[in-house]
From TrEMBL:
<protein>
    <recommendedName>
        <fullName>DUF1754-domain-containing protein</fullName>
    </recommendedName>
</protein>
<feature type="compositionally biased region" description="Low complexity">
    <location>
        <begin position="42"/>
        <end position="54"/>
    </location>
</feature>
<feature type="compositionally biased region" description="Basic and acidic residues">
    <location>
        <begin position="67"/>
        <end position="87"/>
    </location>
</feature>
<dbReference type="InterPro" id="IPR013865">
    <property type="entry name" value="FAM32A"/>
</dbReference>
<dbReference type="Pfam" id="PF08555">
    <property type="entry name" value="FAM32A"/>
</dbReference>
<dbReference type="GO" id="GO:0005730">
    <property type="term" value="C:nucleolus"/>
</dbReference>
<feature type="region of interest" description="Disordered">
    <location>
        <begin position="1"/>
        <end position="87"/>
    </location>
</feature>
Length: 124
């Protein structure tokens, strides 16, 4: 088997542009293909700007405040539950001393099969 070495390229032979990637060709609109209509487009843009300035363009949509919570109810409940569990875990760890933690670890290691056999850890 023979093959050509070097970089991989897309069919067509042109390498990818490093910054922009592959650009898609845009279709020309019928109005642009016909030639003019710049005056109509400018008039419609001006009318839209005037309507927006006078407030006739419908109800104004205010952007949400920057500190707004965009999570769903389920996400909010999950975060609350996780925070509560984390708090309980930390409270449980804070009440145990070093010797108690080592005792619990050694009990856990003793309950494992021989495959996981590790000598005792820590004092006594």
């Amino acid at each position: 088997m023979s093959f050509v070495g070097g970089k991989l390229t897309l069919k067509g032979g042109e390498p990818l542009k490093t910054a922009g990637g592959v650009k898609k060709k845009k279709k020309k609109k019928a109005a642009e293909a016909a030639g003019g209509d710049d005056e109509q487009r400018a008039a419609s843009v001006a009318a839209a700007a005037a309507a927006k300035a006078s407030g006739l363009g419908g109800a104004p949509v205010a952007p949400p405040p920057e500190g707004a919570d965009r999570r769903t109810d389920a996400q909010r409940r999950r975060d609350e539950r996780m925070a509560k569990l984390e708090e309980e875990r930390l409270r449980k760890i804070a009440t145990k001393g070093y010797r108690d933690r080592m005792k619990d670890l050694n009990e856990h290691l003793a309950s494992l099969s021989e495959h996981h056999d590790i000598p005792k850890v820590g004092p006594g």
